[in-house]
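Lab notebook page, bench 4
Experiment: in silico fold of construct C2
Operator: M.H.
Input chain length: 91 residues
Purpose: comparison with the prior construct
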Amino acid sequence: MTIQLHVPDDLRDKIAKRAEESGQSVEQYLQSLIRADADDEDYGSPESVSVRSHDDLVRKLDEAIASGPATPMTRADWAALRKNITDRFGR
């Protein structure tokens, strides 16, 4: 399928820059964006770490900062994490 798309100059420049940074042609870069959106693949990450937009990321970062200082992982924390991963993915 061929699609013709008219893009404003400022956006075209940003697309070209992103494509170059990712080592792709503009066509490949746009295809990868469309494919990612169409596939909307769920890798099983919890909603708390899934980011759907820039605003969503900012909101989650604000929530994390407001939750207080980080605490060190304990042996029990690591054991629970290992069990969760083993239960989900085996081994």
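Observations: Residues 77 and 83 are 10 Å apart (CA to CA). The two ends are 43 Å apart (CA to CA).
Next step: discuss at group meeting.
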